[in-house]
């Protein structure tokens, strides 16, 4: 019961904090582009304003489109709850805090996103949804190979146990395959946070986040909140496996986690601003092949016992 309460606690805290980081990222991005930009709390105001507006849905849409915002938010929250941030000492709760649970929930999130995009009836949204699926085809094999290396090294898929093993030095960067896997997984984390060149903030409706083109009001606010939560969940998964050092006290643990996630968030904004622009297909082809090669090297190193 205590662990369930801690899961709810960490999700609530990050739901409340995540829009602040998104606002800070928007401000920083504007400053880097020599613009004034809005203040840190603009994302809160945007979401509140959206929730005050009525729902509007295309006439051609079905229940998939109408339920998708709730499913996206619930799935993002479930992924976040499965990451042991505040309950890192509770080994018994690994049945839920498990790598396979996160992979299945991530696949469900992508499926709902793509289905809602196609059900919207908007060809631009459908294109955006199909590109989201294409990104998944490139990213998921890399992510799965990295996680296989970690699970084989730890001999478990329980995230709580894996986190503790890294803290105790049983597995970690002293193992070359683990270190190499962390590099490829870092690329996966960046792509899944939806930044350039895999997503363009200036044209979201036409690219990766195509489903946003047909949502409005509270539905749009819920989808945007779900996407921000997904960004934190992906950063949290990387931190839990590869940088798990934190306090056992739940309150201190969530504070440290938010600060560490903030560092990654800001770093992603810098890459987003100063990185080159590519066509999404060419950028995936060039970068994904390199990441796939790195993850394959990590798996090979583990197989040969290095």
From TrEMBL:
Subcellular location(s) per record: Membrane
Swiss-Prot/TrEMBL keywords: Membrane, Oxidoreductase, Transmembrane, Transmembrane helix
Lineage per the UniProt record: Bacteria, Pseudomonadati, Campylobacterota, Epsilonproteobacteria, Campylobacterales
One Gene Ontology MF term: oxidoreductase activity
Gene Ontology annotations for the cellular component aspect, listed alphabetically: plasma membrane
Superkingdom field: Bacteria
First-level EC class: oxidoreductase
Species this protein is from: Campylobacter geochelonis
EC identifiers of the protein: 1.-.-.-
Record carries keyword Transmembrane: yes
Gene, per the UniProt record: hycD_2
Membrane topology: Multi-pass membrane protein
Protein name in the entry: Hydrogenase-4 component C
Segments crossing the lipid bilayer: 6-25, 63-87, 93-113, 134-153, 173-191, 227-245, 251-275, 287-305
Entries under PANTHER family matching the protein: FORMATE HYDROGENLYASE SUBUNIT 4, FORMATE HYDROGENLYASE SUBUNIT 4-RELATED
Pfam families per the UniProt record, alphabetical: NADHdh
């Amino acid at each position: 019961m205590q662990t369930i309460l801690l899961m709810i606690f960490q999700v609530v805290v990050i739901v409340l904090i995540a829009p602040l980081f998104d606002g800070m990222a928007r401000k920083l991005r504007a400053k880097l582009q020599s613009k004034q930009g809005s203040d840190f709390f603009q994302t809160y105001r945007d979401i509140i304003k959206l929730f005050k507006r009525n729902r509007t849905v295309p006439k051609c849409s079905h229940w998939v489109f109408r339920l998708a915002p709730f499913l996206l938010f619930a799935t993002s929250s479930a992924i976040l709850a499965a990451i042991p941030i505040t309950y890192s000492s509770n080994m018994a709760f690994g049945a839920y805090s498990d790598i396979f649970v996160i992979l299945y929930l991530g696949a469900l999130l992508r499926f709902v996103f793509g289905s809602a995009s196609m059900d919207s009836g908007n060809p631009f949204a459908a294109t955006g949804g199909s590109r989201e699926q294409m990104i998944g085809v490139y990213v998921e094999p890399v992510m799965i190979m990295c996680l296989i290396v970690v699970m084989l090294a730890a001999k478990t898929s329980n995230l709580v146990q894996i986190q503790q093993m890294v803290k105790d030095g049983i597995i970690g960067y002293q193992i070359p395959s683990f270190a190499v896997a962390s590099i490829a997984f870092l690329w996966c984390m960046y792509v899944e946070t939806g930044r350039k060149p895999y997503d363009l903030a200036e044209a979201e409706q036409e690219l990766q986040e195509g489903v946003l083109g047909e949502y409005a009001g509270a539905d749009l606010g819920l989808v945007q909140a779900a996407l921000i939560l997904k960004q934190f969940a992906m950063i949290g998964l990387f931190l839990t496996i590869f940088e798990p050092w934190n306090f056992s006290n739940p309150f201190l643990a969530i504070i440290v986690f938010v600060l560490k996630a903030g560092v990654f968030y800001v770093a992603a904004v810098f890459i987003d601003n100063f990185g080159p622009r590519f066509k999404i297909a060419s950028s995936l082809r060039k970068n994904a092949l390199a990441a796939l090669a790195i993850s394959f090297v990590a798996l090979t190193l583990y197989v040969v016992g290095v």
